[in-house]
Amino acid sequence: MAPAAATRRGFLTGALGVGAALGFTACGSNAADGTAPAAGGPIAPSITVAPSPAGTPGSGATPFPSFRLFTDESMNFDALFGLGESTYGISEAGEVITAVNQANAAGADYDGYVTAFRAMGDRVATASDAATAAGDHVTARDTALRAASYYTRALFFVLGTAAPPAEMPLYAEYRRAWDRGIAGAGLAIGARPAAEVLDIPYGDGGLRAWLFRPDDSGSARRTVIINNGSDAQGVELIAYGVRAALDRDWNALVFEGPGQGAMLFERGIPFRPDWEAVITPVVDLLSGRDDVDPNAIALTGWSMGGELVARAAAYEHRLVALVADPPAVDMWRTLPDQVRKIVDPGDPFRTNLIWNETIVPGMTPEQRFTVAKRMEIYTPEAHDAALGGHPTRDFAAVAAQMKKFTVTDAAPQIRCPTLVLDYEGESFYPGQPAEFLSLLTADAKMVTLTAADGAQYHCAPMAPARRNEVVFDWLDSVVPA
């Protein structure tokens, strides 16, 4: 796919030169003419369909449509999740389009996007407050979850605005809405119990988790751990697994690990590569519960979570099934060659000198946001830099950390049946799902979701229901009730 501006859930790919030749881009462009659109250019406030020049990069696939809400690829991709997740009631198509129209009218830049979706979140959160006061618990729940969704839309781009330190306050608004929403009377049609809030022993302060159950009978059920990625929030996992699990009589557990949610925004704790250190305490806790079948615990990982759970499953062998959606074999390879070539492992001073004096000064504001956002998850310094409105200055440290996120050696040690998802138009980890599959020694299956089902692009933003059908049909086949 053609290069474009910063794209949600994408890692830094494309050509990176220096000075006037700088071409620092992220993956995921669906530009109709095969070129990167100019960031910030407003388009008509409506949904249009334009042909895309390619399918999976390098595959020779035939073109397929791309829905255009924004000219800027990053905002367009993010907004598609807002539309797709309306299937599960955590957003409303009309509210999403209203926010899109407002952002386009304001100039379609990051400030306008954040302002529009934050305002929509505020509007719906106010409705939730009023419903709570009136005792209308269903409306209070539904509006709270939608508010959390809109705050999530805004949260991704806040580092690119004039007020990047607003990241933590915006996350706090999200959490207030999320906490109210999951405390409500259920998430699916019919009666469902509220989520149980759990504190999982882990380091200093533990991990916050939420356990959803089909009912409160206490029956020992199959349980799926739904592992998020690098920049989504828990409310999106309602659409990407929780509701589907409940409808099929599974328990579902969602949690915030290092680098995610409050762990990053409030405590400044970045991702760690040895993800088994995170998943094993989760399995420990679940295995000791009467309402969990300890012999039927599965693990799914969404987006960057696909790499994390693959590493965890290589060492946590109590898991009975694994879904990597999609997996990355090596995060370091998601950076452009030109970036990787400036790294001298034996001379971090030289690496940072080139980075700070040659590379960063040549970036556009959009590129600086991309770097700050994509790298805030790896080191405390990178997170502090992002809150200060600029990319990390210690790129050598980020590079050293990124190189640890690989499953080349770990994948062959996975013992449980594994489902590998890939996507037509996957431009974040192109080719890596198939490479991961080739490393596995356990029983494994790969499914590629396609444009024919409207499920193209990384994580199927327009088709979470189709994605869930694939995932849970497979889980039901390998983990019988």
From TrEMBL:
The keyword Kinase does not apply. Keywords: Hydrolase, Signal. GO terms for molecular function: hydrolase activity. InterPro entries: AB_hydrolase_fold, FrsA_esterase, TAT_signal. Residues 1-31 form the signal peptide. Gene3D superfamilies: acylaminoacyl peptidase, alpha/beta hydrolase. Belongs to the AB hydrolase superfamily. This is Alpha/beta hydrolase. It comes from Tomitella cavernea.
